[in-house]
Amino acid sequence: MKTDSCAPLASVIDLLLDAICVVDAQGNIVYVSAACERIFGYTPEEMVGRRMIEMVYPEDRARTVAAAQEVMASQPLLHFENRYVRKDGSVAHIMWSACWSTDNKLRIGVARDITQRKQSEAMQAALYSISEAAHGAKDLAALYQQIHQTIAQLLPVDDFIVAIRNTASGELAYPYQALALDSTALPAEPAASLCFSVLHGAQALRFNADAMRALALPLGDGDIRAWWLGVPLNSSEGVIGVLLLKSTAAPYTEKDQELLQFVSTQVVTAIERKQLYARLHRMAQYDELTGLPNRACFRDRLGTALARVRRNGGRIALLYVDLDRFKQINDTYGHGGGDQLLRAVADRLTACVRDTDTVARLGGDEFVVLLESIVEPEDAQRVVEKVRSAFAQPLSITGHSLEIGMSIGIALYPEDGEAEMQLLKQADDRMYRMKARGGQQSVDCD
């Protein structure tokens, strides 16, 4: 379209920051201004003669064609936004104004590069989304999923892995991984090695197959045409973990790395907030010494179990367990020995019941067992016998072999009551009556 008569005008147009594109009725480019090279990466000579739609981001092509048809129907277009794939494979966000020249059968468009604005908007939206997830996600698993979804809107992601460092051992755990090809318990190589490289180097790294070969890192199947981006999760206490991304669509750029590093600061804040909440929740629900549910957690589970049997029918049983002569053992072997004993009792009691049952520590040397979905009262007695048989074997405490006796009181729903406190009192009273008789016994009725 360039001629001698329009050359002076073309030289002025080439000074514009916005790009001018002229396309014929078949969608072929017939003229572009110099700014197109800055925006799209192609020289004017490379663009002229190409079909414009070929450069449009695949997901935007259908609506771009529809918009072009409206323009060709003499409906001027303002502020239409779509995406283009640049020559280097990166994505440009473009805002168009366009009109149709009926006489020349040409579509004339003015393209403005709004990529930076879009990236800033996406960044702010990502930070807000992660901040909201830190407050609203029900647990760490839900938080990791939200972080994954948010980052996937900013960067190409096939695989997404969160690795968290154990502060005691220094080892990495992988609480969240979304893999395109499999869902193994641990990430396959080279992901695990890359996570350790990022963790120990405490800096962001970008990898392709050549870089991994140079570092003698293992390559997995399908990794020849893959790119990896890993960033450390840096907190005030040091590196708490790693975010690792894999792309098979396009290589990660330095800008991608900078973006992920920036977002990672909010990710760290969100993870630490959720970890603190999880610790506080566990402290409120579980006994710190034994790891068993505490009184509050047990009452909640008992209430749930009672609601279930009232609705569906059936029986449940409570076993109230108190260790015999615990004070004497504590005085003899010290508080350390007493704590060791309580942990050993907790483990042995837990081994005597099903996964669906609950063993809780109410405090001191008092434990309670909730047996759900029992058929006959004798089922509870059989569990008692199993417990007594288990504790007939001595426990090793501070290098000493100790035989531990216990008093056990039983209460059954609905035979001994239908209310939570009524059942607990029945089991407690029966346990204390047995202790008064010398312990080492159990009773399930008056």
UniProtKB/TrEMBL annotation:
GO terms for molecular function: kinase activity. Signal peptide: none annotated. Keywords: Kinase, Transferase. It is found in: Cell inner membrane. Its cofactor is Mg(2+). InterPro entries: DGC-Regulatory_Protein, GAF, GAF-like_dom_sf, GGDEF_dom, Nucleotide_cyclase, PAS, PAS-like_dom_sf, PAS_4. It holds the Pfam family PAS_4. Residues 314-446 form the GGDEF domain. Residues 5-75 form the PAS domain. This is Diguanylate cyclase. Its main location: membrane. GO terms for cellular component: plasma membrane. The keyword Kinase applies. It comes from the Bacteria.
